[in-house]
Amino acid sequence: MPLSAVIVDDEQLARDELAYLLKSAGDVNVVAQGKNGLEAVNLIKEHSPDLVFLDVQMPGLDGSASSRNSSTRKFPCPRSFSPRLLTSMR
Q: Model's pTM, two decimal places?
């Protein structure tokens, strides 16, 4: 069974590229995409994905704040949930 994923990034090209890479890798189904932190919180609540890819730097509510906001919401979270912060700074 493939993992479900949500991608949130304020840059459309970044979202498209990551979605393409995940589709190519197989076993990951991108169920939703968003462009800001507020959308991230709502998409996580709506889809309860196995994986969430958040841009760390976004206008308004950034990835870090979105993550904190999502973790305080009362919606199901797998027991094996273990958040990881992976960054790529240029």
A: 0.72
